[in-house]
């Protein structure tokens, strides 16, 4: 019997779920599990987040409480508990008419992701000189102002996300030799 694959994307607007996700360890756990078909154990996740397996188990249970992760089939040793993400990715939107609680939760989650993105950028800058030329030469920082309508921006967003989709780890059955995980941050915000 084939296991059902996670839903491609989940829209989150519930402030409780957003607050649950706004923890750096939980962000890292979700990223790790959503990039792996087979899921991972608390011990494996603990190595990623730098916490003990018991602390990581606490975070996994909190994520499971909100339907973000679930237990996966065992890998053969029935004693180990394997977790997997329910969705390949999540999108967060408190909604245009959201109240202060939802807005605050959304802001906390987006800021937690922004901090993670900045940490990754700083980490790259610290080690960039030690990276192989092939990777050094393709790293890119770009900040571009566009003059665009809302309809054009919607089309651009759709096109950029479509370009990224085939490279998601779960979609790459046989990645080429030398492939690495790469963080791509794409933000589009209208200016005042």
What does this structure look like?
This protein is α+β, with helices and mostly antiparallel strands and 192 residues long. It is 45% helix and 11% strand. The protein is built from 7 helices and 5 strands; from the N terminus they run E-H-H-E-H-H-E-E-E-H-H-H. The chain has helices at residues 15-21, 24-34, 42-49, 53-65, 100-127, 133-136, 150-164; strands at residues 7-12, 40-41, 69-72, 82-85, 87-92. The chain has a 3-stranded antiparallel beta sheet. A two-stranded parallel ribbon has the order 1-5. Helix 2 packs across helix 3 and helix 3 packs across helix 4 (53-65). The longest helix has 28 residues, at 100-127. It is globular, with a radius of gyration of 18 Å. Residues 1-6 have low confidence and may be disordered.
Features:
single chain, 192 residues, alpha+beta, three-stranded antiparallel beta sheet, two-stranded parallel ribbon, 5 strands, globular, disordered N terminus
Summarize the structure.
The protein is α+β, with helices and mostly antiparallel strands and about 190 residues long.
Oligomer: single chain
Beta-strand residue fraction: 5-15%
Task: State mean pLDDT (0 to 100 scale).
Answer: 90
**Rg on CA atoms, Å:** 18 Å
Strand order of the largest sheet: 2-4-3
Number of helices: 7
Distance between the termini: 54 Å
Q: How many E-type strands?
A: 5
Helices and strands: which structural class?
alpha+beta
Low-pLDDT ranges: 1-6
Shape label: globular
Query: Main beta sheet, described?
Result: 3 strands, antiparallel
What is the H-and-E element order?
EHHEHHEEEHHH
Helix content: 40-55%
């Amino acid at each position: 019997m084939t296991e059902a694959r996670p839903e491609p994307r989940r829209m989150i607007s519930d402030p409780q779920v957003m607050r649950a996700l706004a923890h750096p360890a939980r962000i890292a756990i979700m990223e790790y599990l959503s990039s792996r078909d087979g899921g991972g154990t608390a011990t494996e996740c603990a190595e990623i987040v730098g916490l003990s397996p018991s602390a990581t188990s606490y975070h996994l249970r909190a994520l499971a409480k909100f339907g973000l992760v679930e237990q996966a089939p065992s890998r053969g040793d029935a004693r180990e508990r394997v977790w997997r993400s329910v969705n390949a990715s999540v999108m967060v939107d408190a909604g245009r008419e959201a109240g202060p609680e939802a807005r605050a939760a959304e802001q906390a989650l987006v800021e937690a992701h922004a901090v993670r993105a900045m940490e990754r950028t700083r980490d790259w800058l610290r080690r960039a000189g030690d990276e192989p030329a092939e990777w050094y030469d393709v790293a890119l920082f770009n900040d571009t102002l566009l003059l665009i309508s809302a309809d054009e921006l919607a089309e651009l967003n759709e096109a950029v996300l479509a370009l990224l989709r085939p490279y998601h780890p779960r979609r790459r059955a046989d990645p080429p030799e030398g492939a690495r995980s790469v963080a791509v941050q794409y933000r589009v915000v209208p200016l005042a």
